[in-house]
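Lab notes, practical 5.
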Amino acid sequence: MIIESKRLIISPLKIEDAYEMRAWGLHSNALFEDYNFPFENDEEVKKWFRFKTYTIKNKYYSVKDKSGKLVGYLGIKKRSFMRKSSFLGIVFDPNLMDKGYGTESLLAFLEYYFNRLRMKVLYLEVAEFNERAIKVYERIGFKKIGYYLDYFPIQNIDKNHKDFVDAKSYFVIDGEKIYNYIYKMKLDKEGFLRLWRGDGE
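Output from the prediction step:
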């Protein structure tokens, strides 16, 4: 399976792709530290890859430019074959942000997801502070359907760091624990086709 767009090629994720992620950059914003690829040695990368791909309910794909350079990856998780639904995961090299790769890869992948895989619904969960990602999802057609607090993965973040202070309204501090607000979003096949094809078929 290969999906092509104007600049990108999407195909099943391989262990070689995971090794390449070690060369990715790091997010400059402290709130996104958990999005950085954290593994250096081969065994750690292998464990990460096995964890991501061990179940048929998860499927991950590499996103490469036309020269073959890995720019990101995306996945569908918690796949329900009965409901024909799953949850989206998507990560890109921080060095290659603001190039439109997220929108381009998602539009190409969603055509495959809804038409070739015959799925009906795609959900995602996104931190409220990730305003850039939310704008991309809304532009593609995702709608907010839920809002809740979740455990913030970077519990040791410096609470006096400018990035945290600037985004403090997105967080709740309960004693020593930090929680952040999350949006749950949804896109169904009919909505996607109406928006991007104008036909709903």
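Observations recorded by the TA: The first strand starts at residue 3 and ends at 4. The chain is about 30% helix and 30% strand.
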